[in-house]
Design a protein that fits this description.
257 residues; alpha/beta; ProC C-terminal domain-like fold; 5-stranded mixed beta sheet; Rossmann fold
């Protein structure tokens, strides 16, 4: 997710960008060679430069141990933007100080191609200028929305943060089912990928509700209805998705414990 945020900020021409990554991926190294970012192995290498905002793209388990290393940045007055699942602002404030300006957000991986969505929460001590700064940074990934309570970032994580994995699994399952019906593997995957990509594009372009679009595809007593009778059965897809989102929300809460 950090890589997606870097790519989005580069595309949005947000400069200068200092990236701290001890083990940078090839794309990040390429951006550094092209002088689009300044790459460092440690926070200390940045020195005393004034930083307007610091986006922290660390896994919750890593952030717990690395947060104290970012205290000098927080104390310098930088807006601290955390995208770690589950890690509460109160926990971060213990590491960075009560006066730290902390905003939490949950973006998702489609942000790597500018098609993401980020939910943002800011406590009362965050003023309008910092809110605009957070939106500017996260808009590099796609859409942004604000949530009124920090606890709502847990179901956001379960729905949009983890959601791309659910969609990719659907493509896998759809392709596997196509193979079972006799289609060659390559054709099955091409059909599954194009169907999900095209459906997403239609959903983006058509203002109608998703349920209306579903009904528009479904002819009475036709093939789609036969399939939906299975998918929408009492223990079908809606219940499975509800259980999956519930499990992911629970895990997000546990990460913040």
């Amino acid at each position: 997710m950090g890589g997606a945020l870097v790519k989005g900020c580069v595309a949005a021409k947000i400069r200068p960008l200092f990236v701290v990554e001890p083990h940078p991926s090839p794309p990040i190294r390429a951006l550094a060679r092209a002088r689009k970012i300044r790459l460092h192995k440690t926070v200390d290498e940045i020195g005393n430069r004034r930083i307007r905002a610091c986006a922290i793209a660390l896994k919750p388990q890593v952030l717990k141990t690395e947060a104290p290393n970012l205290k000098p940045v927080a104390r310098s007055g930088a807006l601290m933007l955390s995208i770690a699942a589950g890690t509460r602002i109160a926990t971060l404030a213990k590491a960075w100080g009560r006066g730290a300006r902390i905003v939490r957000a949950m973006p998702n991986t489609p942000g790597a191609v500018g098609k993401g969505i980020s939910a943002i929460f800011a406590p009362r001590n965050i003023g309008p200028a910092d809110r605009r700064l957070a939106v500017m940074l996260l808009s590099a990934l796609g859409q942004t929305i604000w949530v009124r309570e920090e606890s709502l970032l847990d179901p956001v994580t379960a729905v949009s943060g983890s959601g791309p994995a659910y969609v990719f699994l659907m493509v896998e399952a759809l392709a596997a089912a196509a193979e079972q019906q006799g289609l060659p593997r390559a054709d099955a995957m091409s059909l599954a990928r194009a169907t999900v990509i095209g459906s997403g594009a239609l959903l983006d372009a058509d203002p109608r509700d998703a349920a209306e679009l579903r009904k528009a595809v479904t002819s009475p007593h036709g093939t789609t209805e036969a399939a939906l009778d299975i998918l929408m059965s009492p223990r079908g897809l809606p219940e499975l998705i509800a259980r999956a989102v519930s499990a992911a929300t629970k895990r997000a809460k546990e990460l913040g414990a």
